[in-house]
Amino acid sequence: MTGVNLTGFLGDAYPWVKAAHVTFVIFWMAGLFLLPRFYVYHHATTPGSAEDRAWIEREDRVRTIILMPAMLIVWVLGLMLAFHLNVFGQWWFSAKLALVVGLTGYQGWLGSYGKSLAAGKRELENRTLRIMNEVPGIAAALIVVLVIVRPF
User: Fold this and answer.
1) What are the two backbone dihedrals, phi and then psi, of residue 45, each rounded to the nearest 5 degrees?
2) Integer Cα distance of 22 and 28 in angstroms
3) What are the sequence ranges of the domains in the chain?
4) Is the separation of the CB atoms in 48 and 108 below 8 Å?
């Protein structure tokens, strides 16, 4: 295979680990796009209503079935790839890692805000929720540029 580093600790498994990493990044991003959109719709419901309870259940499923497992797998596989390629200390990787840490924190904030919604609190304006919905898309675009272009 041309351009593939098979000499690291992953050896021949490298392309498989990379493929799995990209796959779970897609799953994670899908959840990060979906959950804030759910919050926008949930925000408009009456606390305690049947519709409110349905959104709480949907949101919990996204967090527990999609987001948490995908994020954990992305981290494990991503760190395996980073060690295999020995990219620690490269500026593009440091920037990418900072964005991934930021997305992880964003996911934590999503979980916290979901608990507020479930408790009947509507702490943010609808417009703010819609703006927050753009965070993962911007981060994903920046990460792709860092990984593919490696501008520094």
Assistant:
1) -85, 165
2) 10
3) 12-148
4) no
Q: Is the pTM of this model over 0.90?
A: yes
Mean of pLDDT values over 40-67: 97
The residue type at 109: W
Helix, strand, coil fractions of the chain, as percent rounded to 5: 80, 0, 20
| Helices then strands, each counted (H, E), the chain | 6, 0
pLDDT surpassing 90 at residue 128: yes
Q: How far is CA 146 from CA 40, 90, 100, 105, 152, in A?
A: 30, 11, 12, 20, 8
Cα Rg of the chain, angstroms: 18
Asked whether 95 and 149 are in contact (CB, 8 A), the reply is no
How high does pLDDT run on average in the chain?
95
Asked if 112 contacts 59 with a C-beta cutoff of 8 angstroms, the reply is no
